[in-house]
Amino acid sequence: MTRQPVRSFRSRDWFADPARSDMTALYLERFMNYGLTADELRSGKPIIGIAQTGSDLSPCNRIHLDLAKRVREGIIAAGGVPMEFPTVPIFENCRRPTAALDRNLSYLALTETLYGYPIDAVVLTTGCDKTTPAGIMAACTVDIPAIVLSGGPMLDGWHEGELVGSGTVIWRSRRKLAAGEIDEEEFLRRATDSAPSAGHCNTMGTASTMNSVAEALGLSLPGCAMIPAPYRERGQMAFLTGKRIVDMAYEDLRPSRILTRESFVNAIRTVTAIGGSSNAQPHLIAMARHAGIELSTADFATEGYDLPLLADVQPAGRFLGERFHRAGGVPAVLTELAAAGKLHGECLTVTGQTIAENIAGRTARDREVIRPYDKPLKEQAGFLVMTGNLFDAAIMKTSVISPAFRERYLSQPGREGVFEARAIVFDGSDDYHHRINDPSLNIDEDCILVIRGAGPIGWPGSAEVVNMQPPDHLIQRGIMALPTLGDGRQSGTSDSPSILNASPESAAGGGLAWLRTGDMIRVDLNKGTCDALVDDAEIARRRTEPGPEVPPSHTPWEELYREKTGQLGEGGVLEFALKYRGVAAVTPRH
Ligand code: FES
Ligand code: MG
């Protein structure tokens, strides 16, 4: 007897609709021109999409061009028909003015593909930062069975006997360059050595964070996130993922059955424990909102702040992805959270089992890299959520606050966690680069560097620019970091304890628009406040003046993006799109 799906496969409506045999012939004929047979497509097997994010333009995900072969073999072995198709390329480092424009674009395009073609279930190939949230957001809107396959990080990078990690080595070498300790050639050698193989960033940047998040959400097979791209286990994971998605198609195991408020809380806690990227804030909120689950910036404070840092991985720690994987990876971190009562173990996952069942017996194998919950690297290591007269919400990633920064700014006797600093305000990153070394600004260690015009509307897209480094003369004196603040984002690989993702942004009428160089800013980490010490009458007066100029849109998508996208504090999503959920329940008309 042939296996029966819980719910009839939607592809039947294309390939086996007895009422429209004319259309069926049309739908079938062109798939056969590369060797598929009509029988295969009409046999009642599920059609499994492979959303291919790898390309020459997306080198972080390029491993998926090879892995897809194993995914296909898994799909066929389990009785499905694979159909691979491309997605909009997303490459964090190279896309100008920012890859942030691509998350929502890729989301839109993938949603249309999954809805409009005869696809019953999908493998989301992920890697580079935004490829993970884009895929999950689309899977939530369409709501067909979906499974995440990470391409995996690169191998650990080594340079002259030292670990050099993606991105993090760039920020650190940039400071060394400014201090005159290295030259440009050495800079490039370090960068090259940090990228020794196929794969995405080997630090706990946004890519590894988001793949870990997918695993914590229950959307990938256990252990999937951190297997390095070149490891043999990666190909095996691809095969198993392909096999499993066929069963999920039969079981009708859709994102709406897996994702819950509790699974997102698990993800927030995982981000703290791994020292994950500050970009997890907008991406998690975006995925939750597309899944119809309430999640806000405040949840990062209530659910995530008070947890410890367990993974000793750059930029918050020392090691890189390959060693973290060998230490046990995400399942070992989840095991620590579970043992401390900080994991909702009952959450369902793509395996059809709970997350607690998935991680049974997967304890850490290297305690130098993954600490026990009660002997962490840092206590209270989550994102601080801040508010004040300059913005409604911003976050600060506390796990990257260095001892030197803590000593200088947060350890004044009697007022620990509080500092005041003179604002130096930059309008976008060009302005910063032109003026940061301008002696007339008199930048000293009592300044806070502020950047505005870097949010979703201002940039447009929201740029990773808030981790501004101090002027060269301070770096040469050994001052490697000043406080920074901005309405943009920063790379997940950065070790800067910036106050960032400020919402609303300056271009949307946020308080940063009226801030001026020379204003004093008071930051209180105990209260979670950040205020310009400017009186209300003066603020009101400044608000009547025109704000900073917003550059024009240069492409149709930039214009549309600006019109439809909300603020980072709400996930930076296409707000109108949220009302579309579970759209695959209605098969498109012929
Ligand atoms: Fe693509 Fe980091 S730049 S993963
Ligand atoms: Mg990034």
UniProtKB/TrEMBL annotation:
Give the top-rank taxon of the lineage listed in the UniProt record for this protein.
Bacteria
Which PROSITE patterns does this entry report, sorted A to Z? ILVD_EDD_1 (PS00886)
Q: Which UniProt keywords apply?
A: Iron, Iron-sulfur, Lyase, Metal-binding
Cited Gene3D superfamilies: IlvD/EDD C-terminal domain-like
Q: Which residues form the Dihydroxy-acid/6-phosphogluconate dehydratase C-terminal domain?
A: 368-571
Q: What is its EC number?
A: 4.2.1.9
Q: Which SUPFAM superfamilies match?
A: IlvD/EDD N-terminal domain-like, LeuD/IlvD-like
Transferase keyword on record: no
Q: What is this protein called?
A: Dihydroxy-acid dehydratase
Q: Which organism is it from?
A: Sphingomonas aerophila
Q: What is the lineage of its organism?
A: Bacteria, Pseudomonadati, Pseudomonadota, Alphaproteobacteria, Sphingomonadales
